[in-house]
Each structure stands twice: as structure tokens, then as C-alpha cells.
Amino acid sequence: VVVSKGPGSYTGLRIGVSFAKGLCYALKIPLISIDTLHAIALGWVQSGSPEVDLICPMIDARRMEVYSAIYNSNLQSLKSISADIIEVNSYSELIQDKTVVFIGDGANKCQNLLQGEKRTFRGDFLPSAAYLGKEGYIKFQKSNFEDVAYFEPFYLKEFIALKSKKSVI
Length: 169
What we know:
The structure is a single chain. Helix content is 30%, strand content 24%. The protein contains 5 helices and 7 strands.
């Protein structure tokens, strides 16, 4: 079973990984995990989309924050996965003079701040299980499996429960 390990929504990761771990444990089969942002970038390359110098997958993390990474066209990481508050100069040292595609649901909210001549924003290019297959198969061939009992999703940030401001009564 191949699962997207995060980053992403706390609840979504928790449910998806728990389900995958349950299947693996019950069926005695291996668990394989793939970074969500890497999988989105991999999907861009595999889909035959226009070639660019840099691929920046982004997941909306509320307000002006995104989970992001930057890869070159060979999917080599140029900026590791991080939670970033987007500002006008975000990533400027990496993306200057390069053709860049920003993909994922975080791309739309960054478009006004990161606009440029060589920049494309595809907020409609979203994570898909279809992007996990090829990378999952490579990991399967190498027996690169997760420990089903101890594997935890990559949350990136701690979960913070907030008290509701709405009255219960």
C-alpha cells in the first residue's frame, strides 16, 4: 500500500495513514510512503505538462501560509519542504530569471504576491493517488518499506486545537 505521508491537513493525513496502516497490518503487506509535495511535482512531470526550470508545489495551510518545496525539472530538491508565510520576495533568490510553475491549492492565493513574467500558477493541479504509483513501485523494488507499527505522518507543524468561539448553548 502506498500512502501520501504529508505534509497536509492534520485530519486528512491521520485518517489516510491510519487506514493504510490498518490494511497493511491486516493483510501482512508492506507500507510505502511518498512525500506529498514531491508526489505533486512528480505528477506535473509525468503529465506531460510544459517543461519549466522549477516546480513549486504548494499546499494551502491557512491564512497566507503554505507548505511548499522547490524542485528542478529532474525533481531534485532545491528547497526542502517547509511551512512558509508568503510575501512579495518569497523564494526570490531561487526563482529569479527562471521559468517557474506554482502548483497545488496553495498556488492561487500566492499568485498576486509572486507574479512575474516567467511564472505560471496552476491551483487546479492537485494531489492525486495516481502520482504515487511510479515512485511507490520503485520503493517496492528496493524494499524501502515503512514500519507499520511506528510510522507517523509528516505533519510539518504541531496540531493546535483551538476553543470554539461559538456558544454551545
